[in-house]
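Notes continue from the previous slide.

Worked example: a multi-chain complex. Inputs as given:
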Amino acid sequence: MAAPESGDGNNGAARMVTLISSDNTRFEVEAAAASLSQTLQLTILDGGGGGGDGIPLPNVDSATLSKVLEYCIKHAPAAANGGAPNATAVDRAELERFDNEFVNIDQSVLYSLIMAAHNLEIEGLQSLVAKKVADMIKGKSPMEIRRTLGFPDPTPEEQAEMNAHMLEYGWAYE
Amino acid sequence: MADGSGDARGKRLAAEAMEDRLSGLPDDLLQHILSFLPSRDAVRTCVLARHYREQWKSVRAIRITGDNIRTFWGPTALNTFVTCLLLFRNKLLLDEAELNTYEGDEHSPILENLILQFHPNHYNLVEMGASYNLKKHSLILKNLTLEVKCAQVDDRIIRILELFHSCGLPLEKIKIKHLPTLSDNQFPETWASSGSFSSEQKT
């Protein structure tokens, strides 16, 4: 994130852009990394984000944004190679290791991340988190899922409604 | 859950906040999450909360995989499940379809015989088939026979047959049956009783 470049992206040095989180923290990052976000890519292609201006991201707080950028910076080289024709197996394994570590985090952070990925249209990140959440609930009973996701235990009425639904969906319980 | 103590109340409040947030995810995001689950798990989330009731119907993936298949009571339960899944889901294109073996045995594909029955008033199956990602899962085509039942061969059917063929299904394995008097209520029953999924007949 830290780099002295603040100018107008000549061919030599990597072009930098500044992103501003909802709580007004400025993040300077290579345009290539920020462009993993479809939304930001459009702004950047239009010449935005350079110099002192910065791109405001009113829906993303600084904690989440720094996590998002960590992902983008790690994935930018592979994305620049158009998905990876020249990526070696080692590179790919390293990315996979990074991804696994990356989502090994608190649920509330996962939630903020997936919302940010959705807002910023970072497809890979959204899939990564979605998959992680799916893994958390895979093979569990409804009650177990509710507990995993942190839902409160159902009230008797809710329980009755759940039971009625399970009967209706008998074909999914055989 | 213990009640009364401030701690328990705090926990419950935190839990409710989490529920609110998860319910607050946009539908497409929830559906994206569900798309990574085995299809049966995805369907089962309908009981979780009101907001989840119909989400599974719009999931753009079908996943019926080895590990998950072993949790079905048997081929009949599996067949019923697939039938209901296809009938009740919304008619949306699929991004992915993963269909693996019954016993996790690479030699017994579950799709030995796939019957596609087309009905003028039911577009579900056509859209489903037309978007199968068969190239990714060519395994299922090895022993697959495809039966097509329809009133007449129209564009939709040609499209789906071309797709299967382009993915390596030999033409001689495709059977087309004309059913000129297909009625609305006949449709689900025939499909349900077609027994199109293999059992563990291997020795």
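Summary box: Residues 1-61 of chain B form one domain. Chain B touches chain A through 38 residues (CB under 8 Å).
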